[in-house]
């Protein structure tokens, strides 16, 4: 059977070497190791400083960037406030289309939209996360704040001054202008609109773990002297205008607009018996386009279909959907003819897909930018570093940048710009909608990745938990009750499990369609084939040779993928999920833990193998000296550099955890030995100082790049706001870890690993240490450092539970393999 093929032959009665002499950790080691760490840190700083002159290009469009971008990226970071001129002559037209998804957009011919994209338009899929549930009102509040926001009940009741409060409200049938002034203390201008529940809207976001100011977008425009107008609605039986939140300032006021019955026409065949009156909206647009600098148009027919969907058949919904998209396309074409594309930029926003699309895991919205001299391309920004994908928090900063208005404090998004289209998407006369078709394909593939992710990861986690519990049960059984085939099966399964993260990384690249069954087959084949290769490569050292080779190959593949552009991680179930939006680039928490766990455990194993080959037993002069530790710590420094680099790993928490692993590797005296606390304290202080200096160096460098990562953006925010952004970040990371402890299945795996280690070392302390690790001090040193690094991962990352769980698999697998191996019957050879 497979585990019999993979399994190495049982031990033939290996003789234990003499006990180690109990030499003390020399006092000079602390000074030497501290000087060495400082020298390597300065080298690392020089490497990072040299990298500042190397421009970073987003990997998703490296092939398309053989020529300079049509629109060179400007400095996108927030600058100190400067007076913006209201006389720039630029205008913005924003068309908000609630319940629009890119997959549905590509399902219906839209010639006008395709023509705009083919001439001077760029587009992207858009992450739609909010601070709460996936609702249109939360999406509208998020667009307005430039930061993930919440909206209370009825926050979408944005009424014109002349309208009356709808039935069902406590102040029903009273004039909206009177009620608004009563609630807020502000007077609505004639022809203006007001957010009736503005006080509740601001109160709902006061307790967020990040700064959230709904109305920041319109406030910035008002401060710059620019005027805003709002047209349209998504009303059904009651007022429902989520798009109006984008146009309202923090007082809840929109100075001018048109909504309600004047913006709709009766249609008994359409949901709720009404639909958008595009002729009336076009006529009003001509007027407001002359008077205002920013015109927000809410085309709400798709949202009416969405809210009516529980009452209609799927066939009827599909008919309305196709008809509404055609009408929308014609309306956009007429707006495009009305504006001056030289000084006006058109923005089309799908803030949230409809209920049906969202339930089918199509959770990405749509963002289009056209006009103003823009060339066809895909949108990309500092939030995602991914051509063709942006975030909803990027919409407001992008419009403000076009208008020359400084981005206000509290906006977490970044402006997006256009990257050239890859060669396969360059529009041709016979294929004008190539860009829309590509976005639809991308949306469906990312939805497939979201669908298959839980199956792959839950299977991985729960097999780990079951295996850990099974081996623990075997440990505490009598010796006679330990079947030899079961022990062999455990060793083989442990090897397969440690191969699984590498198989998930390679499997996504091997499957272009992301079909779950096909990807599953590829992952299984890789998980079974690689252990056979590792078994052959590691046959010179039993039983851990195969494990060590799998570990080091896994770490190398992850590091190379990060350095070359994250191509594998983007299609891996253990990599990114743009729909969830937790990570878009760099090394995520899953593969961060995999890399560190694999490197530390592999280095301990290879070090032990090398010493055994040289001496046959541990050297007689005592435990490994600091020169040996320094030599074998070089891979940790390499990992730390990759993690620190904003264009590669972009992971500060992982980099600090890697530095912790370096520190522990260099200064820990080894299991069972008395530490020199004075040297340990000195080295700890030096390490803290070096880590702080390196972090500041990386942050300052990253802030000067055209597309800074989250480290550089934090540095810029601290320059203008002091320590508040840093403290908010720390609070956000702690709260995220606390939430993950409660609902992620990775927490179950971490608890299982910790329970296993506690049971092994505290309930029966002699059975494992004396026969297995006492004569393997180098391996024991690597396993000890692995556990310390897992603690650092948990403490230093916002998803530390995930990183610590994936890291712990590697040392635990080696420990269990040693135990299973020691209880196999000796080979007859």
If you had to describe this structure to a student in words, what would you say it looks like?
The protein is α/β, with parallel strands linked by helices. The protein has 29 helices and 15 strands. A hairpin with a 7-residue loop joins strand 8 (264-266) and strand 9. Helix 17 crosses helix 18 (545-564). The radius of gyration is 30 Å and the shape is elongated.
How would you sum up this structure in a few lines?
The protein is 54% helix and 8% strand. With 829 residues, the protein is of the alpha/beta class. The N terminus is likely disordered.
Topology:
Blueprint lengths: L1 H5 L20 H25 L39 E6 L5 H4 L5 H10 E7 L8 H10 L12 E3 L15 H9 L8 E3 L2 H7 L11 H8 L4 E6 L10 H4 L5 E2 L1 E3 L5 E3 L7 E3 L1 H14 L2 E6 L1 H8 L5 H25 L5 E7 L4 H5 L5 E7 L5 E5 L7 E3 L3 H9 L12 E5 L13 H42 L8 H27 L5 H22 L7 H20 L24 H27 L10 H7 L1 H11 L7 H16 L9 H27 L6 H12 L2 H20 L1 H19 L1 H9 L3 H20 L3 H23 L7
Helix pairs in contact: 2-23, 4-12, 10-12, 11-12, 15-16, 15-26, 16-17, 16-18, 16-29, 17-18, 18-19, 19-21, 19-22, 19-28, 19-29, 21-22, 22-23, 22-28, 23-24, 26-27, 26-29, 28-29
